[in-house]
Amino acid sequence: MREAPAYVKLPFQLTYNSLLSTGSRCLVFSVNREIVLKCALTPQPHAPLGFTEALFCDESFWSLEREKFIYDILALDPHPNILQSVLVCLEGVFLPRMWAPLLIDRLEQDHPLSSTTTFRWIREILSAMRHLEKHGFTHGALSPHNIFIDENDHVKLFDFGDSARIGQPVSLFNPPYSDAVQEIAGPGTEQFAFGSCMYTILTGGQEPIFQITGTDLDPEKFPETCGLTGGEIIYKCWRKGYASLEHVAADIEKLCTWKPPPLVIRLKLSNRDEDDSATEMSDSTSESETLPDEPSPTPMPVDNVRSMLHDAREYLIANSDDEDVAPAKVMSLTELAPLREFCEGFRANLDSSGYMQRLAWTGGIELGSS
């Protein structure tokens, strides 16, 4: 059984048997299977308090007041990715009881997750943060520990005890989701927290590790991001390079909607064999022709196609007598014969992947992309 400090007065007729969590500053009680009550640490009347206990109760009171204020705003303008209150009253905040896991637990339990799922969560988190920014507030303590994943696999932000108006000092130093002890709440603090959340999501629950120098994180020793999809966005968030969360969202949308360009293969013959090309290569098409339209099968992953292109170039270079040969090499029909089978197989793979747009035979061999 969990217990609150002995000097704390329990609200209503609740007992320690219904205490779910002592939290960082507040108490959370179970009301029934659907609702919980979050309340501040209120001391018993005339309870003898030391300086530490009095300070803790004071922090708890103001933390809950900030949370009440945010839930009052959200009651008038709700957001699908932010937990909504059931009732805000003098004693505390009644909230839906969430049986779903926290984001940090979900990442550790179900890793690896599909990119569709992870980027949906990233976009939903950012959408909820922008909603608070629209009302002039920051979350103040954003992390995967303060985000639920509901039964429909969507994000729900909660815990607004450290929220602050934009332009006011932040009340919490919480690395790796904040980067300095004394900061002013605004787009900079929120994008830094978002960048760390995005990093944690894309690494399957591995939170970034920063080095602290004095009261700040060392900006020259940020974690490596170049191997992550969207790593440039994460790094820019850590450097606070965006003017607002709207600009972060614009880059996230570009990342999520980007598609690789179609790959093109061109096979060319040397001029001296031009006369024989019609008979030797009767199955080829002209440069202006395109393959007939057919239903496109599921595309091969672009990394596989790039690997095939790399192998083709390496094959050409390895079979060249010229030390300075480029990936594109002029060859006669006789020299081309050993490559014919390889190229046909390569073309078939591209055809089946939906990446190949055309195949042209004109004066040298060239493998590339458009």
Automatic annotation (TrEMBL):
GO terms for cellular component: cytoplasm. Residues 279-289 have a biased composition (Low complexity). Keywords: ATP-binding, Kinase, Nucleotide-binding, Serine/threonine-protein kinase, Transferase. The keyword Iron does not apply. InterPro entries: Kinase-like_dom_sf, Prot_kinase_dom. It holds the Pfam family Pkinase. Residues 269-304 are annotated as: Disordered. GO terms for biological process: intracellular signal transduction. It comes from the Eukaryota. This is Serine/threonine protein kinase. It comes from Polytolypa hystricis (strain UAMH7299). The lineage of its organism: Eukaryota, Fungi, Dikarya, Ascomycota, Pezizomycotina.
